Amino acid sequence: MARSDDGNGIVDDYAMIEEDGDQTIKLVKRAIELSLPTLQIDPRQLAGQLVGRLVASTTGCGIDSSVQLEVSELLCKLKSHDFGFDWWCPMTPTWDRAEEAFLRKFTGHTNAVQSVSWSIDGKRIVSGSWDTTLR
Fold first, then answer.
1. Which residue from 31, 40, 101, 104 could staple onto 53, CB 3.0 to 4.6 Å apart?
2. What's the distance, CA 67 to chain centroid?
3. pLDDT tens for residues 42-62?
4. Residue 135 near residue 126, CB atoms below 8 Å
5. 7-43: string of b/e by CB count within 10 Å (b at 16+)?
């Protein structure tokens, strides 16, 4: 990651080049956004994050065949590239895939979340955890 160590620079770059209707760009940007919490801890996990979040897009129902081909080519290049370190390469899709409706992953609790509540206006959310904190 040349511009930042946490992945936000890549998201900013994709926002600048995102063309209206370019499904491939949108999928890759979405995969990066979903990966940000992990990339903030270890930026070297970018390739594994992209593979896991995009692999289902290579055969997904309702995804244009040209998009499937472009994503397949990207994943092939990622899998064959020598990054200079060992990395985990998923063989199956992750739960949080780029083509699914998933807004944001909240982090911070150190134990299981027991409850979640939204404000009436839908602008705020609070979660309570077995770690005895509210976030």
1. 31
2. 17
3. 888 899 999 998 988 887 667
4. yes
5. bbebbeebeeeeeeeebbbbbbbbbbbbbbebbeeeb
Amino acid at 80: S
Name the token pair of 18. 């995102």
Q: Cβ distance 129 to 135 under 8 Å?
A: yes
Angle between helices 46-54 and 23-41 (to 10 degrees): 140
User: Concatenated DSSP letters for the chain?
Assistant: --S-SSSHHHHHHHHHHPPTT-HHHHHHHHHHHHHHHHHHH-GGGHHHHHHHHHGGGGT-TTS-HHHHHHHHHHHHHHHH---SS-----SS--SS-TTS---------SS-EEEEEE-TTSS-EEEEETTS-B-
Rounded to whole angstroms, the Cα distance separating 72 from 68 reads 6
Burial of 51 (0-12, 13-18, 19+ CB in 10 A): buried
- Cβ atoms of residues 98 and 30 within 8 Å: yes
